[in-house]
User: Fold this.
Amino acid sequence: MNIPDSLARVLDVRGITGEARTKFLSPVQFSEIERPESLPGLGTVVARLLGAVQSLQPIGIFADYDCDGVLSGAILYTTLRMLGADVSIVVPTRDNGYGLSTAAVKRFANEGKRLILTVDNGIMAHEPIKMADRLGIDTVIVDHHHKNGEEPAANAILWDDRYCAGGLAFMVAWALLKEVRGEVMADKTAKSLVRLAAIAMIADKVRPSKPGGSKKSRPV
Assistant:
């Protein structure tokens, strides 16, 4: 494979040689991407979001503040808006702390939200989700971080540590589009959204692995 000497030296330093180099430099085709239906829990998440879209229940998305969180939030916000949802998004700053908080739940409640969707966070938000339940607000979690004990009692959870949140959000968006717009139109739209998921995966330093295999040493 003919590549610039400077790129070859970088790949050599990183140990990417031989067949691994060829694979690394060969873009994955859209047809090779894993189908969303293969992810455990995705069907429940999609069903709850579709229910909110169809009944015009106000949805509040709570994303993380890093690249992965912002892009995963953008993927789902854009998709839900395309489908006609009543949806808004909150992206906190680092000063607000990581993850869904009770203050955020109170804010969503004051705004009349009936569903909170967390992306790139939420798998450890036990108390905020309990508060949402007491306030009559459903919760859906899309997260990839390490679990700290039992999962919170959300109405629907998509958790998989093989992907970054952008990858999981893309799978949810793709599945939603298939349900509403059919296979052909869904694939056409998904091809534009997958770029955001790819950037998120690079920024979050996530490499796909076998189910249950962790790629990241940090918890958040």
About this structure: The chain has two domains: 1-32, 34-203.
